[in-house]
Write a structure and sequence with these properties.
Helix content: 25-40%
Order of helices and strands: HHHHEEEEEHEHEHEEHEEEEHE
Number of strands: 14
CATH class of the largest domain: Alpha Beta
């Protein structure tokens, strides 16, 4: 017999001998004795001759049957470990389906048919932010486990390749708003997050990727997807110079655009020719953790002046429907740029 089997056989004999010694049993009663030894009071009665081994074994079995059974342990849901921008680990349910884009119906986005959020959350602190309203609402707690704290969803990086372009797709059907629930280029966002998102875009060039940030200078240090529509958001005059300086230096992307939503001040640009497209909109009402922020519309003069300057610079202009007050009302400019492709020639 091999040494390991001899050792196992020896341990089995020793266990049986110990059980037999405890109960005074021998031979065929060994197994009963081993079971009874788990009930010390019954084993003592057998040793003292007050109870037969058979009766003790029967009582032990009855006790085991009557003992409450532990509740079955439900298998826990598979979770992922995500990271916030400061490195904090966050447990998040593993999605049951492969990552895909979301349709933008109901999101108030009129210029793209899809949204994609590999990063959520923002630290700008804008008091009117619709994304923070969504992320901090009670109904969204499961989807946003850390509220509006910046969080990287690496499990969503495959969405561009997993989402098929619809048959007979319109131009809008090819446009994806990237990080509608975040500022991907905020100063708190790690370079690694941005690099992975950009690589996913580069690997799936069938889509037009609309980016938007209040930190446009960060674009200058990155490898940009050729099909990106790079945008910057300007709501007040102090952001104008930052936007103009950065966009004079940006090249090699499909579209350069300017979002003036919400338009909170009468903005003065020295030049708009570095942009292909201007989007102008009002402030919609939001419910923030601090209370309700009411809707507000810019005066007609602010909008008219920007429209005239954009026309002189050759920019296309899209005015958001929220600028209108009545129906049918006046038709607002609803123009879109022609993206640059490989030629690099501005339309």
């Amino acid at each position: 017999m091999p040494a390991d089997l001899r050792s196992a056989d020896r341990r089995q004999r020793e266990s049986s001998e110990q059980a037999a010694k405890l109960t005074g049993a021998s031979g065929r009663g060994v197994q009963q004795a081993k079971a009874v030894s788990k009930s010390p009071d019954l084993a003592e009665q057998v040793k003292a001759g007050k109870l037969s081994l058979d009766n003790a074994h029967t009582q032990h079995q009855q006790r085991e049957k009557a003992a409450p059974k532990p509740a079955p342990v439900k298998p826990s849901a598979t979770t992922l470990t995500l990271r916030t921008s400061d490195g904090t680990a966050v447990e998040y349910p593993q999605p049951k389906a492969e990552a895909k884009f979301n349709r933008t119906e109901g999101e108030g986005i009129s210029w793209a048919s899809w949204s994609w959020n590999p990063v959520t959350g923002c630290l700008h602190g804008c008091n009117y932010c619709y994304a923070r309203e969504t992320a901090t609402s009670k109904r969204s707690r499961d989807a946003y486990p850390v509220g509006f704290t910046p969080l990287f969803h690496h499990e969503r990086l495959d969405a561009p390749k997993n989402t098929p372009v619809p048959a007979g797709a319109s131009e809008s059907d090819r446009r994806v708003f990237v990080c509608s629930m975040a500022d991907l280029y905020g100063r708190w966002v790690p370079d690694e997050w941005i690099s992975q998102v950009h690589q996913a875009c580069i690997d799936s060039p069938q889509w037009d990727y609309l980016m938007l940030t209040k930190f446009p200078a960060r674009y200058l240090k990155l490898d940009l997807p050729p099909t990106a529509w790079l945008g910057t958001s300007v709501d007040k005059q102090d952001r104008v110079r930052i936007a103009e300086t950065a966009f004079r230096q940006i090249d090699g992307v499909a579209v350069k655009w300017l979002s003036l939503e919400p338009l909170l001040a009468p903005l003065e640009f020295s030049d708009l020719s570095m942009f292909d497209w201007i989007v102008i909109g009002s402030q919609t009402q939001t419910v923030q953790p601090t209370g309700v922020v009411p809707a507000s519309a810019p005066p007609f003069e602010w909008v008219a002046r920007l429209w005239a300057q954009a026309r002189e610079a050759g920019c296309r202009v899209h005015m958001k429907p929220n600028l209108g007050r009545s129906s049918p009302g006046m038709a607002l400019p609803d123009e879109y740029p022609v993206p640059r492709r490989s030629s690099g020639v501005k339309p």
